[in-house]
Predict the 3D structure of the following.
Amino acid sequence: MVPRPRVLVIAEAANPEWVSVPLVGWQIASALRRVADVHLVTQVRNRDAVLRAGLMEGQDFTVIDSEALARPVWALASWLRMGEGKGWTMLTALASLSYPYFERLVWKQFGPAIRSGAYDIVHRVTPLSPTANSSLASKCASAGVPFVLGPLNGGVPWPAGFDAERRREREWLSYVRGLYRLLPGRARMLRNCAALIAGSRHTLAELGTHGRERGVYIPENGVNPDALGTPSQQDVSGPLRCCFVGRLVPYKGPDILIEALLPLLQSGRVTLDIVGSGPMEDVLRQLVQDNALEGAVTFHGWLDHAGVGAVLSRANLLTFPSVREFGGGVVVEAMALGVVPVVCDYAGPGELVTARTGFKVPMAGRFALIAAFRQKVTDICDSPDCLPRMGADARELVRTQFTWPRKADHILQVYEWVTGKRDTRPQPFQVQTGDTPDVRSAHKITNER
């Protein structure tokens, strides 16, 4: 038998009880345990949740207490962002400035073991942001231990026509985000990475020559096989059930969605479930009240993962007009339930949805996007018979390509490549769509690809 690689997984954010980046960090680290001997290194704030998940401290994981710097930096960032759920670029930038202290403590504790050959690979999983440099890359290279970085994701440009949303999000720093490429140590880090995993094609392009030479594209989001849940029944006999899941903030576009669906909601052709909370909630509720849509739109507020699944599994469509989505985890979760997504053909969601599993609306300015979403959902209402088959195709796509074990297998190929057990770089992730002309080509519905 080929020995399993010994991997030190660095995931400053890795928490099974949180969402977004911490959950992605946890899921990747956990999935890798199936294919490698993993020791997880994470920040002290995650300790209790990791213990509750069944890992043994010292044996399975180690926590690093960087709170002396992390806590005041987080407090400063929270003040500068001027509002909960806003100013994410500012938050990421300041976190990136404090992150080197975490890695300094990691090297202090694990540097001797790395130099002695206790690990075959060091893999930094989080932060996901490509703006967070790593001093460990050059130190591991000097020790002769391959350093793998990623999945990196983020920095998708704001699309034209949404500057008002950009300002409402208080994304002032996004105007000069590209300056991160000039940060000291970035070029050295990229040179010393044995492999760079990119979570999106946009981020892979940002890595330039280093990405072309040592980059591997693997989308960051996935689902657990045992969490696929009860699939949507896709009953198309009555009003179609649309569902929005996400924070109620400008770039997610919940107001765009309500305006797009307005005539369909008023005529009773669709209903809308909104799952999530955020600073736009009062505005959205007022919009619903002003248009007498209380019987057609239901606000569920924040729900835990099981609650989200319960609402989402009753839907026909995930209607998700987010204009700047890096990963699109909710799109994968919807497809896992057999719910057909309708998304903007931009960034993360546009890379995940295929012509057999959902609908992609071309990115445009606000008013054009509202019109395009309205037309797309109207077309679906006119010809809904395709939805059961598309939902089944979506569920099968996730089952075969977007589970965390599947991602671990792909990352294992990266490990084999950087340790010389594989001669060629792994192929980038490619959605196997099997798209061929079928009966849907005769329908009124058309998919922009």
